[in-house]
Amino acid sequence: MAFADMLNIGMMQGFAGLSLFAVLLLMGLGLAIIFGQMGVINMAHGEFMTLGAYTIFLFSTLAESFFPQFTQSYFLVAIVAAFFVAFLAGWCVEWALIRHLYKRPLDTLLATWGVSLGMQQCFRSFIGPKEVSPTLPDWLMGSWSPHEGLDIPINGLFVMALTLVVTGGVLLALYKSRWGLRVRATVANRPMANAIGINTKKTDRMTYAIGCGIAGVAGAAFTTIGSTGPTSGSLYIVDAFLVVTFGGAASLLGTVASAFGIAQMQSISEFFMTGSMAKVLTLMTIVVILMMRPQGLFASKIRH
Amino acid sequence: MNKIKAFIDQRGLGSFLILAALILVVFPLAMDIFRLNLVGKYLTYGFVAIGLVMCWGYGGVLSLGQGVFFGLGGYAMAMFLKLEASDPISTKIQSTPGIPDFMDWNQLTALPLWWEPFKYLPFALVAVLLVPTLLAFVISFAMFKRRVGGVYFAIITQAVALIMTVLIIGQQGYTGGVNGITDLKTLLGWDIRTNSAKYILYFANALLLLGCIYFCLWVQKSKLGTLLLAMRDKEDRVRFSGYDVSMFKVFAFCLAAMLSAIGGAMFTLQVGFMSPSFVGIVPSIEMVIFAAVGGRMSLIGAVYGALLVNFGKTYFSESFPDLWLFLMASLFIGVVMAFPNGLAGVYTSHVKPWLARRKATQAKSQALAVPPADNPPPASPPPAKEAEVPGLIRAT
């Protein structure tokens, strides 16, 4: 009995770590493309996530008040919509700001910080300062218990499944598609990519927009876990940057590995101390490791 | 008289003197003590801004963690003041008299060991200067020795700012938590809340700031300043010339940290409390915008930037709280897109040529007007004003 309890606690603890891993990876993926591949320090990343989350909220409200027959099924459509809303916003931001700043990476930081402030205030003025959460379909609620005393929340499973799909999609797109080839060529050597006929400007805009779209999907997934407010995005931004930097900026595999490492470190240390101290310990470990090994876990083979 | 003028021109001190006159004479005469105290608070951000000019503009090292050093300086000062304010007599209603009130609320029964030395002012002052500088040294030495680029350095400093905030808020019993260290009363028995004390602190702060600016101007004029600039523009070339680039960057970052810490300590003295809301990520980035608005290459401009942005913040968040964030957003975007060198850059690239053109046309029209010699051109400005102009230009 006691052994079974221990096993259950261990499994639930392990699941908590895994679901934190999924969250961190989902946050980091979009940034791994924008920051890792393009070198743009996108401080508005969190706000693109919030944008995706608000899209879900909009769909949920619409479904509830006008189309009650869709309250069970709107969620999947809404996730796709969240991608496209964030994608469009990213497209516009790239067109208006980022394309002028590729040669000044530190200035992209300040400009996108401005974008994030503006977006936060837009959310506050037009949607409202209160935190909102969409009405989730029934199949996302509750928990799955394979046997007595073991409860695994379904929303956690959903986020993990979504993370798997998105990560797989990004890996495939980056390494198997024409777009991925163009992105990698542009990152590796911009003048040469230009010379062989790749439209690097168009590639940049597409890349930035896709990164923002993935952030939108991440935000959409987070609505199943917590509520969304105007400033929710700013809570994630440092974590997202650390995940990408720790993994080695230009390596997607590194991002996966570092999200896993950070999540396990955090959830295991949370078992022994308070949440805030666990966070401090995790962050400090990352910072110290980055000081020792600035290129991150997986260094890219590209020379910059 | 001419000698003095030549001296000012030669050292580029004209705009320095104008700033000094503004904050030492004009502001105290024009404002009541409440507003003057606010200006004093803004000027403490001026320390951070000139620090950023030295490390970001001159050294090319953007730090998003200046709030950490500002906070460390402020907290070191606040710890001393708090210990003085919580003597056993005034805290006798606590279950443990003689320790700061927030410790008592958090069931601490004795002063933590690392608070003990803060009972002595000299130690607190040394801590204000050295603790942030040491932290800056540790961070920057480890990173610049490994040739970490500016982008990664910015992200790491931001992570440090997050760690610091979480730590301060999490360790409520030792740091006062979210509320920070409040209720500061006296400095060595001298009540810092009275109006006369506020005046004295304002002038002390202003003089200290001017002293720091003068020091930084001197650094910029020295060989060290030239090297910093050279490094920012072509790091490899300086390295191949045989200089240890990393140590110069470490120096610039430590200097910025120490300046911020002085600002933080003066902030605590003038405002009367210190809290984690001046430490985290958001305030740290706001500090960068002070320097960016004023001009990242101009010490004097950075002080004006700190003053302007904070005046704007106070004014707009009092009257149009919704507009403030939009304004801040457009400030960030506008400065980066249109005026990368801030107000000082606008001055050197637009106002200065315009003044020079005006002077040239005036000289021409005067030369033409000399033969008739009966009516001089009406628009000619008083010569005294023109005499100041060259100094202004050279300093920015």
Question: How is this structure best summarized?
Answer:
With 304 residues, chain A is an all-alpha fold. Chain A has helices at residues 2-37, 45-65, 74-96, 105-127, 154-176, 178-188, 190-195, 200-222, 232-247, 252-272, 275-292, and strands at residues 143-144, 152-153.
Describe the structure.
The complex is a heterodimer of chains A (304) and B (396). With 304 residues, chain A is an all-alpha fold. Chain A has a domain at 24-137 and 151-233. Chain A is built from 11 helices and 2 strands, in the order H-H-H-H-E-E-H-H-H-H-H-H-H. In chain A, strands 1-2 form a two-stranded antiparallel ribbon. The longest helix of chain A is centred in the first third of the chain and has 36 residues, at 2-37. The radius of gyration of chain A is 20 Å and the shape is globular. Chain B has 396 residues and is mainly alpha-helical. Chain B has 2 domains: 9-340, no CATH class; 344-396. Chain B has helices at residues 2-11, 14-30, 33-58, 66-85, 101-105, 121-145, 150-170, 172-175, 195-221, 223-233, 235-240, 245-271, 281-294, 299-319, 321-337, 342-369, 383-395, and strands spanning 186-187, 190-191. In chain B, helix 13 packs parallel to helix 16 (342-369). The longest helix of chain B is centred in the C-terminal third of the chain and has 28 residues, at 342-369. At the A-B interface, helix 4, helix 9 and helix 11 of A face helix 6, helix 7, helix 13 and helix 15 of B.
